[in-house]
Amino acid sequence: MASTQHLLDIRNLVTRFYTEEGVVHAVNDVSYMLDEGETLGVVGESGCGKSVHALSIMRLIASPPGKIEGGQILFRGRDLLTLSDDDMRRVRGAEIAMIFQDPMTSLNPVKTVGFQIMEALMLHEGMDKTHAKERTAELLDLVGIPEAKQRVDDYPHQFSGGMRQRAMIAMGLSCNPSILIADEPTTALDVTIQAQIVDLVRRLQQKLGMTVIWITHDLGVVAGLAQRVNVMYAGKIIEAGPVKQIYSNPNHPYTVGLLGSLPSHGTKRAARLFSIPGEPPDLVGGAVGCAFAARCNYKVPRCLQETPKLEEVAPGHIAACWEKDKVRRV
Question: Is 289:295 a contact under the CB 8 Å cutoff?
Fold first, then answer.
């Protein structure tokens, strides 16, 4: 019996951290699906659960204090949360790879960049040292490192920030993963290098046909990179859908605020940038009602008492807000 199987199918993911201050509700009932060749943007402020949800996919949540408490992470139909540690290690890098925000903390400073890429090739692809070194030079060339063969034996401190991030992308691509998760990979770089890295990932995604999850706080980056976007707030997806639909017709006040903070968004908006008042909520303990209510200009009493559920507002476009009709008219 044939059925459509998504490459990645996350169902009701829940991740908590148990601290002295209390239980941090970092990821709260997150669900979405991803197909082959798609690029998904995951956006939101720091502390909204973007990175924790990605680390949960990779099963890299430090325990203690963290724990994946519920849900399923189905990759090609297999639930990653039920795999043994050895089986999960075989998935990491080989089938799902992740690149992080700061390559200086991800790269080992006392080992050459080339050796660190070669390690993955020897472990997952079974290559000998000679072939692994040749493939490493090819990968560094693929991501735009000049004189790649000569740079294989360089150490991380001999690379610029942009080159280190390119090396991390090469490492992520080394075993031809089906999914590449990029966790704010351009945050520490200057604007010009950021644009180069975004363009590089876009071209590699098109050339290799891989699936990308791009995590960022910058909706502007997502516009030119992703087909779909998940907007996260307080550990939940509060709006999701096609990028063009979200940008042209946001249905959640938080999304409106994020878009309003972009310098070049739209021609009808005032030149002055919009800022979202207040602070993100404390995720210690459970919240009653809408987590965004304290910062929202559209709140009504119901928002403080009931948590809105995600509802379809257009084909493939969902949002969780009691006052969607008001938001739509903005």
Answer: no
